[in-house]
Amino acid sequence: MAEMKIDVRGETCPVPLVEMRKALRKASPGDIVEVIGNHPASKKEIPMAVKALGLELMEVQQEGEIWKIRIRR
Amino acid sequence: MAGKATLVVHSGDMDKLYSALIIANGALSMGMEASLYFTFWGLERLKKGGLEKGPLSRMNLLGLGKWMVKRRMKKAKVVSLEKLLQDFKELGGKIIACEMTMEIMGIKPEDLRQDLIDDYGAVGAYIQEAKESTITLFI
């Protein structure tokens, strides 16, 4: 199973969400996509989108300003 | 989640175009389909070289207001309209150009960004898209 890392640090709405979606479209079922960013609103929005897409939200981590979200396709 | 968003882009104002594209890209990112129906002043922005030419909908101040807002947007790292459109297309979004606007304003297909346009249509095309949409907006 492959794992993809998307770095959207410094990017603002809607880029983190769009880049997450692009990565998930390229991923195969079972693959993991990890998104790293610091835009506060996207930390709430990405889990919302993951739910809407019917995928598994594995982990949401926060360290200082940086958050990390892991999604399984 | 299925569902579809159909937006009429009537305004050619820069800020409204941002709203339309951000909403449409959000819909695509959340697994919906999305169609943008460009008409009137909105269609002007699909002319070659016309994308960034729109004024601010308020406080444009002959371009000074727009310049200030663009500077602040750059500082806040907001991406360009071109990038939003490219993302929209990459995520499978559909762009329809209004044929009646083209007639009224004397716009020929070759005047428009044909790399972005999927289809040309009139009100029937919009209704067809909108009636199967869960979100429709007029911007």
CATH architecture of chain B: 3-Layer(aba) Sandwich
CATH architecture of chain A: 2-Layer Sandwich
Question: CATH topology of chain B, anyone?
Answer: Hypothetical Protein Ychn, Chain: A
Q: What string, H for helix and E for strand, traces the elements of chain A in order?
A: EHEHEE
Order of helices and strands of chain B: EHEHHHEHEHE
**Biggest pleated-sheet summary of chain B:** 5 strands, parallel
What is the H level of CATH, i.e. the homologous superfamily of chain B?
Answer: DsrEFH-like
The tally of domains of chain B stands at: 1
State the name of the first-level CATH class of chain B.
Alpha Beta
- How are strands sequenced across the largest beta sheet of chain A? 1-2-4-3
Spatial strand sequence of the major β-sheet of chain B: 4-3-2-1-5
What percentage of the residues of chain B does DSSP assign to strands (E)? 15-25%
Question: What structural category characterises the helix and strand content of chain B?
Answer: alpha/beta
The rounded Rg of chain B comes to: 15 Å
**Can you summarize the main beta sheet of chain A?**
4 strands, mixed
Fraction in helix of chain B: 40-55%
Greatest contact between two chains: A-B, 17 and 16 residues
